[in-house]
Amino acid sequence: MRLIYLIIAVLIATPSFAATYHIDELAGSGGDGSFATPFDELSDLPSMSTGDDVYLKCGSVFTPTARWLINWGGTSGNRAVLGAYYDDGGAVYDTNGTDPEINGSTYTEPLDVQNQSDGGHYTGYDGLVEVSSGNDYVTIENIKITEAGGHGLKILGDGTVGGNVGYFILDNVTTEDTWRAGITVESNPYNYGTIQNCEVSGAAQVFGTGGFSPWNSALNVAHSDHAYTTIKDNYVHENYGEGIDVLTFTTSDAGYVTIQD
Predict the structure, then answer these.
(1) Which of the chain's ends, N or C, has fewer CB atoms near its CB within 10 Å?
(2) How far apart are CA 12 and CA 148, in angstroms?
(3) Which of 68, 59, 146 is nearest to 105 (CA)?
(4) Could you give the CA distance from residue 261 to residue 255 in angstroms, rounded to a whole number?
């Protein structure tokens, strides 16, 4: 009987381990996501669980046919990471100077046909890479996002505390030539996020058409009461519209944001 109790106790105490997936555009199809046999498409990822990590091979260029929705998060002790890796006799989870790129195919992705089209481009508000509401403790680092048809990278809550995207870290994310903002955080009442060491250029291309000029800025926090976001050590340059913006349209403020360096 004691042995049975001991086995039950061990099973209860055994932690579950998050998965780590690798994606290399040059890998053959049929991989399992391991370092040895990586996936070759973003769409190869299985249903994700809390704390799972995804690493894109440095030098890869991915052209998704829809927004890449990050619909899982992590915990304070096990963050979910979207980052880069390279091969140096084994997997090195960092950048080698050539960050993996996610490209929106000349502003055509993500496609949002519910919004007005202009000049052959779509003016939707989705992010090419988008973290969805309720997913806390996500780190996105060492990636490049280009030619998004909406926002480049979007952190999107639903305006409620329960749907908040909290404790995110955006580190060394580069966005270039996006139709709307390069990086945007929206509708997160208490997000406690950090945006650092990022570079945003060529954002808010929608302003450059002359035919359709809604609000837009390059890097912003919007509609996020008590956001407590820290924006530091970023390089925001050669954009249309505003550069770094903290704003509201209605009764949702964007308070307690620190912008430094």
Answers:
(1) N
(2) 45
(3) 146
(4) 19
Contact between 215 and 230 under an 8 Å Cβ cutoff? The reply is no
**pLDDT (tens digit per residue) in 99-157:** 999 999 988 898 754 444 445 545 568 999 999 999 999 999 999 999 998 999 999 99
Is the four-CA dihedral 209, 176, 63, 110 of positive or negative sign?
A: negative
Q: Residue 122 corresponds to which amino acid?
A: Y
Burial class of residue 199 (count of CB atoms within 10 Å of its CB; 0-12, 13-18, 19+): middle
* 152 touches 183 (CB < 8 A): yes
Pairing label, strands 217-222, 199-201 = unpaired
Contact 33, 23 (CB under 8 A): yes
**Residue 242: closest CA among 208, 218, 259, 213:** 218
Helices (H), the chain: 2-13
**Integer Cα distance of 191 and 254 in angstroms:** 11
Could you tell me the two tokens for 172? 């060394």
The enclosing H or E element of 150 equals: none
Structure tokens at 70: 């990050």
Q: What pLDDT, in 10s, does the model give residues 132-141?
A: 999 999 999 9
